[in-house]
């Protein structure tokens, strides 16, 4: 069964450093999402792509976060500089258009 | 903000049916009811969704009341591997998923 791949699974960094997360969606899925999940809360959408175009980035802190999906396939989410409050699980999901979203295993980030 | 209300936690004995309630009193005619679950340290997993009619798949059944203001997710024979946080989400077909804090289901032996 096809799955969404994410790497790394865990990342520890110091504040003010740059970090990057990678996501490979299910083949053929044009829509890709990045979510952030703070411990004890549900996931919150950061950015949504349709192919290589951003559809919704209203909740993305653009002063330090950036996301790209250059060829409309895999995607990278970057944080620069990282802050203590960025410690969270970062989840990637994909879907065919508006169909069911399938989530990857996530990247757990700890900022020291 | 999430448009649903769920109990924060529930227990269920292994082998028994787990019935997870969800209130969505402000649901509109175009909004679907979706259920996802999240096992510890994993990404959310889609379970089932419905609009008006009751739905069943290999994982669960979804019962939606006639006025659509509430629904129940039923896991017919809960196992220890069903221990997870279950999220009930109301959304229009083209809307983004908005997660609340869900129900933490603990299945015990």
Architecture overview:
The complex is a heterodimer of chains A (112) and B (109). By secondary structure, chain A is mainly β. In chain A, strands 2, 4, 5, 6, 9, 10 and 11 form a 7-stranded mixed sheet that branches. In chain A, strands 1-3-8-7 form a 4-stranded antiparallel sheet, with no helix packed on it. In chain A, strand 7 and strand 8 form a beta hairpin. Chain B has 109 residues and is mainly beta. In chain B, 32% of the residues are buried. The radius of gyration of chain B is 13 Å and the shape is globular. The model of chain B has no long low-confidence stretch (mean pLDDT 94). In chain B, the strands form 2 sheets. In chain B, strands 1-9-8-3-4 form a 5-stranded mixed sheet, with no helix packed on it. Chain B has a 4-stranded antiparallel sheet with strand order 2-7-6-5, with no helix packed on it. Chain B contains no helices and 9 strands. The chains are: A mainly beta (112), B mainly beta (109). The interface between A and B is medium-sized, with 21 and 18 residues.
Q: Name the chain pair with the biggest interface and residue counts per chain.
A: A-B, 21 and 18 residues
Task: Determine the strand fraction of chain A and express it as a percent band.
Answer: over 45%
**Termini Cα gap of chain B:** 35 Å
So what's the overall shape of chain B? Answer: globular
Radius of gyration of chain B: 13 Å
How is the largest sheet of chain B built, in terms of strand order?
Answer: 1-9-8-3-4
């Amino acid at each position: 069964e096809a799955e969404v791949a994410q790497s790394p699974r865990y990342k520890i960094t110091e504040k003010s450093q740059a970090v990057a997360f990678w996501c490979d969606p299910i083949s053929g899925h044009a829509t890709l999402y990045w979510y952030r999940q703070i411990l004890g809360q549900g996931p919150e959408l950061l950015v949504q792509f349709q192919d290589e175009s951003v559809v919704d980035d209203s909740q993305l802190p653009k002063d330090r976060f950036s996301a790209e999906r250059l060829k409309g396939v895999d995607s990278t989410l970057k944080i620069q500089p990282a802050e203590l409050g960025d410690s969270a699980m970062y989840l990637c999901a994909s879907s065919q258009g508006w169909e069911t979203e399938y989530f990857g295993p996530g990247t757990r980030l700890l900022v020291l | 903000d999430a448009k649903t209300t769920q109990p924060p936690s529930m227990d269920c004995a292994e082998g028994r049916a787990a019935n997870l309630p969800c209130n969505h009193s402000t649901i509109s005619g175009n909004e679907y009811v979706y259920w996802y679950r999240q096992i510890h340290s994993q990404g959310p997993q889609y379970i089932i969704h419905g609009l008006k009619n009751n739905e069943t798949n290999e994982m669960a059944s979804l019962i939606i009341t006639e006025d659509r203001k509430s629904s129940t997710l039923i896991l017919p024979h809960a196992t220890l591997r069903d221990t997870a946080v279950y999220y009930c989400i109301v959304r229009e077909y083209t809307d983004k998923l908005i997660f609340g804090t869900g129900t933490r289901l603990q299945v015990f032996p």
